[in-house]
Amino acid sequence: MTAAVVFYTRVVCHLCEEVASGLEAVARELGFKVEPVDVDLDLELLERFNDLVPVIAVAGEVVASAPIDLDAVRAAG
């Protein structure tokens, strides 16, 4: 996968921590890097994703939000 993969997350989020480890495993498997972005540090992102976190976007397109389906990330690549 060569597309940018962005992981919208927040610091205090148990579900985000669980997804992060699974997402990193998929990243190693498929050879891509994950860019974590804390939605609490950006008002626009907070308004957009507050109730959806964690969220994964591939090439600017949201492919998964809570509950995260990592197969959707694989398929997006």
What would you call the shape? globular
**What is the CATH topology descriptor?**
Glutaredoxin
Let me know the largest β-sheet: 4 strands, mixed
Structural class per helix/strand content? alpha+beta
The main sheet orders its strands as 2-1-3-4
CATH architecture type:
3-Layer(aba) Sandwich
**Terminus-to-terminus distance:** 5 Å
Number of helices: 3
Computed CA radius of gyration, to the nearest angstrom:
11 Å
Total number of beta strands = 4
Mean pLDDT: 91
Assembly state of the chains shown: single chain
From N to C, what is the helix and strand string? EHEHEEH
- Domain tally: 1
Q: Unreliable runs, pLDDT <50, ≥5 residues?
A: none
Going by CATH, the homologous superfamily would be: Glutaredoxin
CATH top level? Alpha Beta
Q: Indicate the percent of residues in helices.
A: 40-55%
What do these coordinates show?
The chain has about 80 residues and is of the alpha+beta class. It has a single domain (about 5-75), classed as Glutaredoxin (3-Layer(aba) Sandwich), CATH 3.40.30. The protein contains three helices and four strands, in the order βαβαββα. The protein has helices at about 15-30, 45-50, 70-75; strands at about 5-10, 35-40, 55-60, 60-65. Strands 2-1-3-4 form a four-stranded mixed β-sheet, with helices on one face.
